[in-house]
Amino acid sequence: MNYLLDTHILLWWLDQSPRLENSWVSLMEDASNTIYVSSVSFWEISIKNRIGKLPLPFDPEKDLEKIVNQCHFEVLPISPGHALIAGNWKMEHRDPFDRMLAAQSKIEKMPLISNDLELKAFGVQIV
Fold first, then answer.
1. What would the pLDDT profile of 14-61 be if each residue is shown by its tens digit?
2. In a domain, 87, yes or no
3. CB distance 113 to 3 below 8 Å
4. Integer Cα distance of 86 and 52 in angstroms
5. Distance of alpha carbon 119 from alpha carbon 36, whole angstroms
6. Any alpha helices (H) in the chain, and if so which ranges?
7. Gyration radius from the chain CA atoms
8. What is the residue-averaged pLDDT of the chain?
9. Considering only CA atoms, which of 54, 34, 48, 35 is closest in space to residue 97?
10. For the domain that residue 48 is a member of, what is the CATH number?
11. pLDDT by residue (tens digit) across 82-110?
12. Residue 107 included in any domain
């Protein structure tokens, strides 16, 4: 099965955070599943690192894509369809990163691994 990671789940995975639920870890470690990281997560991490909200032990610009590949995750690019749905949703959700992740989850029919239950308002499956 295919799953899309919310940005915070990717960061928790990289940090080996105890906040990761065992069920998420099982899904992410199951070789029969394909785990996707959205290009929007790269953008979000880069911005938050640059403005000081997300200090990291690595340089995202140089290392993040390589690290994601080493985790055997796939990168999901942003398509025009993703952008149009994310921009046109009438819901009042101000975070553009969340809107894009929800749009990608919906279009690609991939459950989103996240602890942000507010994303359910977009009609996407949250694991």
1. 999 999 999 999 999 999 999 999 999 999 999 999 999 999 989 999
2. yes
3. yes
4. 26
5. 17
6. 7-15, 22-29, 39-50, 60-70, 80-88, 96-108
7. 14
8. 95
9. 48
10. 3.40.50.1010
11. 999 999 988 777 789 999 999 999 999 99
12. yes
Query: With contact defined as beta carbons under 8 Å apart, do 38 and 76 qualify?
Result: yes
Identify the burial level of 10 via C-beta atoms within 10 angstroms of its C-beta, where 0-12 means exposed, 13-18 middle and 19 or more buried.
Answer: buried
SS3 for 87?
helix
Domain count of the fold of the chain:
1
Crossing angle, helix 96-108 and helix 39-50, to 10 degrees?
Answer: 170
In a domain, 127, yes or no: no
What is the residue range of 118's domain?
2-122
CB 91 within 8 A of CB 53: no
Structure-token match 């000081």, residue found:
52
| pTM (two decimals) | 0.94
* Residue 23 near residue 127 (C-beta atoms within 8 A): yes
Percent of the chain with pLDDT over 70: 100
Q: 65 in helix, strand or coil?
A: helix
